[in-house]
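Justification of resources, computational component.

The compute hours requested in this renewal are based largely on the per-chain cost of generating structure records like the one below. Each record pairs the submitted sequence with a full structure-token output. That output is archived, and it is also reused by downstream analysis tasks.
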Amino acid sequence: MQHPDANRRNETHAPQGRAAQPQRTGIYTPEERKRRDASPWTIVQGVLAPLQFLVFLVSLGLVLRFLATGEGLLAATVSVVVKTLVLYTIMVTGAIWEKKVFGVYLFAPPFFWEDVFSMLVIALHTAYLAAALTGALPAHQQMYLALAAYATYVVNAGQFLLKLRGARLEQSRMATVSGDLALTK
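The structure output for this chain reads:
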């Protein structure tokens, strides 16, 4: 038997102090889109994402060089540490962005699966740091772990790029519909 207050508890899932969110028809509600566009954290994410990709490319080259030649362990290690620090930075600032736009630090419905996969990316990068700091794995195995972390990063970056593309297409459709409505008046 269902508790009498069950329906009342499930009526809204809006963050405390906010009204219930309108029914979502796309990635962003109109209010979320306004908050996204007004947030300085949107710009921060826009700068950090390509920076992280650049750091990734340099590091990937250094890791592959070490694995192919056995040379450049220090450079490869430093590059993976830098890549991991940039990842942590983008994850923290991304959580702040998500809070400003959606009212939660992580796992907002439109970005739920991207955030879930991001946890795997962070776990593998952190495992690399632990292995490098403790020497728990030999150097070659550390670099293979870094490659595994990088593979998950590429998948996760692809998820976010697809989401960004979807948001742009959604915005374009909305502009087209608005324009069509203006023409019919």
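The two ends are 53 Å apart (CA to CA). The CA atoms of residues 95 and 106 lie 6 Å apart.
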